[in-house]
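User: I'm putting together a small comparison set for a docking exercise, and I want a reference complex before I start. The sequence is below, and the ligand is NA7. Could you produce the 3D structure with the ligand included, as structure tokens?
Assistant: Of course. I'll restate your input first, then give the structure tokens for the complex.
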Amino acid sequence: MENIEPHLQRQKGNGAVERYDVVVVGAGFGGLYALHHLRGMGLSVRVFEGAAGVGGTWWWNRYPGARVDFPGGPFYCYTFSEELVREWDWTETQPDQRSVLAYLNYVADRFDLRRDIQLETWVTDARYDEATQRWTVETSTGARVSAQFVVCAVGSLFAAFKPNIPGLDDFAGECYHTGRWPQEQVFFAGKRVGIIGTGSSGVQAIPEIAKEAAHLIVFQRTPQYSIPARNHPIDPEVVRQARENWAALRAKMTAAQSGSLFEVPERSALDDTPEQRQAVYEALWQKGGLSLLFSSYTDLLTNKDANRTVADFLRGKIRAIVRDPETARKLMPDYYVGTKRPLLDNGYFETFNRDNVTLIDLREDPIVKITPDGVRTAKGEHPLDMLVLATGFDAISGALLRINPKGRGGISLKDKWSTRFDSYLGVTIAGFPNFFMIHGPGSPSVLFNMPLGAELQSQWIGNCVRYLREHGLGAIEATPDAERSWDAEVAEIANRTLFPLTDSWYTGANIPGKPRQFCVHLGGPLYFQHLAEAAAAGFRGFVLEKENPRERSSSMAAAATQ
Ligand code: NA7
């Protein structure tokens, strides 16, 4: 398998230092919009992207079956441009990876973004200099640039996690990680394939691989609930109405808990009789998608008894679909539904009825080691031609830590975040002036409509830069007090839910040795209200420094007039 951390390979170079107002790291949904928005303010912006193309997560995750698992089509895309909404024709309710990547490439061309994006360039280091109030950013190509601001749009699900299973590097067959899927087509036909991992990626990939492979062995550590995606062609009438009412729909999405247009339920699951609940769950199961969790009852994620009702329903579905009772038993999940990333599938449980698919329950039959020929579990050998690692990511904080920026006094992010992933507003970090995150720890990130969330955060960052420029300020930095109370709020909201009770990548439990902390702000619109209020109060919770006169930016006047 190729090195899954190529961005850690440094190259030396001695070129001249170029100066920008802003360096953006990453050219996915977040980075592309940050470039468009900040450049539109008259700022000079340089984007560094390690991949050979734009797209971020959608560039890397090209494994078979990869699809949007949120309400898709015109609702999982940029919202800022009505023209763009009118121009781009989504064809399916759950667009596949190719469609999303094609869309992002269209956006890059449509808004002339490519001229400011440098591809195949990993940011290897970033250091803040207090005297100049600027960051020096180093890259894998040897280019070193200076910028007043750094916007890290590196993605919540970028740092692919390769588990430390004995012998993994000795495997002699083909080996791929779903989050680092090769550009070239991968052929499964006639091959004995093994897949480790049954999260969103595994559950999407397994039915597709099973259709082609001679035999597929699924190595499952934690059984999962999954809901049929029921992907289908988009109703043109839905698209027409969305286009006609875009401003109102955008406002509605922005004000919604998840950033999308789910109907909001009004009843507790415990207000209904078992028969009524069954009817509600069955109707939403037939409809497909996340409505079963988001539009059925108010308290599935806050009340254990309510959650058990939907867990029982979903376990019943597994029993009904999977013909072999022993396989169905192994597939039976037992955590609180929704507290791991909810899964949408296209025939996942049905796949276990195929003759060419075997399920190994690693809780009963753990992996002992990987050999050159396959996987050895406690109960036997499993010869393989190909091994797929669907083992997830060092999520939310992992990609930022791989850059490991050095802030005030040279403090590294690894030191700062050695025990807790503290942030203020999920966008800034005390000790790291003029440094911003899109979808950072402490923001709604993966539990809000991500393109929309990235737009709203980028706009806030733009307002912040404009404020500094208009007031002759050179640096902004969160205070430790503001950070402490922000973290307390994130934890307090999470503790009203069942999320912290489950081991998941939301809590960091999937990465050995990672500090446990629920890193998602679950406030939805409350979060964006906090952002607006902090800005309206003159950037409350921040220390604002006067601009060093020698560092006055050439584009200051342009930015101030926007
Ligand atoms: P996930 O959801 O983190 O899933 C990773 C899976 O890999 C999960 O089933 C893990 O089991 C399993 N895993 C991880 N390490 C091991 C080891 N050492 N042995 C066996 N099994 C292991 O990542 P995904 O890529 O599926 O999902 C991320 C997606 O979320 C993203 O692509 C979006 O679609 C949304 P565990 O549950 O930890 O027991």
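Residues 17-54+113-159+394-561 form a domain with the FAD/NAD(P)-binding domain fold (CATH 3.50.50.60). The radius of gyration is 24 Å.
User: Thanks, that's exactly what I needed.
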